[in-house]
Structure formats: structure tokens, C-alpha cells
Backbone:
């Protein structure tokens, strides 16, 4: 009995498989999707052709413009001149320049060596020989002020002397005054005082200098 059922089940399964094999099955075939044209490539190609075309059109025009420019005649160079003419012209132009430089250098040197005058007087540092004072005669002309002597006052007086070419003291300017009549005593001592003249390159000149006088009590 069991064998009969198994045999019938096997026959039924085989029939079903056979039926499935012969049944019609419909398949839907998809149509291919249309691909867009490569517009970017076409545009690039057109632009390139247009550029090449414009370049070919403009190149002859540029050459024509260059051809129409007037030619400039060559400027003769000094090398084209004979060697003798070059040497003579160079020497002629060099000599005035050298002379001018030498004159300028001499003028600058003379200006540096020329001392600056103070109110028309040479500074004593710039003269060749300074004036010489007779100290004994000058000391004899100095009178100690009575007021300073009574109060036992001492001090240093500095005067600027302006001495003429003859050696005569023409002007006296007090630069330091301790008071008590000491400066007036110094002015009185130098008034109409005469020294040996100052010399600048063996020539007597007017000179100015500072002279200190110290007043002390013994």
C-alpha cells in the first residue's frame, strides 16, 4: 500500500515538473537608453577651429604692419672712426675734464686750509706764529682792586683780546668775571697794550685769542 502511494506521488511530481518546463514564459526586453551627444567635445572643437582660424587671419596683418614701419638708418659708432681720430678726440675731451677736476680739488683744498675769521680776526689756533706778551710789563700794569683786597677776594678773569696787525690790542671782551672790580682791572691792564704781531705764512695778521688773568693775594 505504501509503495503504491509513493509510486503515485513520484508520478505526480514528475508530471508537475514536465508541465513547468513546457509552460510559455514572457520576458520584457528593455530598450537601450539613448546616450546624449558629447556637446562639450563639439563646442571645444569649434572653439579651437575658430581660434586657429583667427590666428591665421591676423598673422599676415601683423606682418604687413611690421613691414610698413620705416627703417631707422644706423647711427655711426665711434668704432667706425679711425684709431687716430678716436685717440685725439678722447684726449681732447679728457684734458678739460682733468683740468676741471684738478682746479676743483685745488679750490677745495685752499678753502679747507683757509681759516675762518672771527669779526675779521684770525683765530690764534690758525696762525703760524702767535703774538708774544711781555708778562713782566703786563703784571706791572695790573692793579689789584681795593674792594677785592679789603674783602680778601680772589678770582679768575678771562678776556678775549682782538689784536691788530701791528700787535696793538684794539678791543677787549670779558668772558668770565668773578666781580669785585677784577674784570675792570684786567681791562685797564690790556688797554693800549702792545704785543709782537701774529704771523700767518710770514705775513702779519690781526688775531683774536682768550687770555686768563688770575688775581691772588699773598
Residues:
Amino acid at each position: 500500500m505504501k509503495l503504491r502511494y509513493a509510486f503515485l506521488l513520484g508520478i505526480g511530481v514528475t508530471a508537475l515538473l514536465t508541465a513547468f518546463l513546457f509552460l510559455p514564459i514572457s520576458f520584457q526586453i528593455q530598450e537601450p537608453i539613448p546616450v546624449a551627444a558629447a556637446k562639450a567635445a563639439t563646442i571645444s572643437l569649434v572653439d579651437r577651429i575658430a581660434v586657429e582660424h583667427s590666428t591665421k587671419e591676423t598673422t599676415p596683418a601683423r606682418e604687413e604692419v611690421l613691414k610698413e614701419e620705416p627703417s631707422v638708418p644706423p647711427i655711426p659708432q665711434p668704432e667706425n672712426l679711425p684709431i687716430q681720430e678716436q685717440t685725439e678726440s678722447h684726449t681732447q675731451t679728457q684734458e678739460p675734464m682733468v683740468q676741471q677736476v684738478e682746479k676743483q680739488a685745488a679750490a677745495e683744498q685752499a678753502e679747507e686750509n683757509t681759516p675762518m675769521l672771527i669779526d675779521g680776526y684770525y683765530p690764534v689756533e690758525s696762525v703760524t706764529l702767535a703774538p708774544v706778551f711781555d708778562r713782566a710789563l703786563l703784571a706791572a700794569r695790573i692793579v689789584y682792586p681795593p674792594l677785592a683786597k679789603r674783602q680778601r677776594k680772589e678770582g679768575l678773569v678771562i678776556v678775549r683780546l682782538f689784536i691788530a696787525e701791528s700787535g696793538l690790542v684794539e678791543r677787549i671782551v670779558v668772558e668770565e668775571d668773578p666781580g669785585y672790580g677784577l674784570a675792570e682791572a684786567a681791562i685797564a691792564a690790556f688797554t693800549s697794550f702792545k704785543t709782537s704781531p701774529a704771523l700767518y705764512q710770514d705775513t702779519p695778521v690781526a688775531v683774536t685769542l682768550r687770555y686768563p688773568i688770575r688775581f691772588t693775594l699773598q
In short: Residues 35-56, 58-67 have pLDDT under 50 and may be disordered. The beta strands are 122-123, 155-163, 169-176, 198-199, 204-205, 207-215. The chain has six helices and six strands.
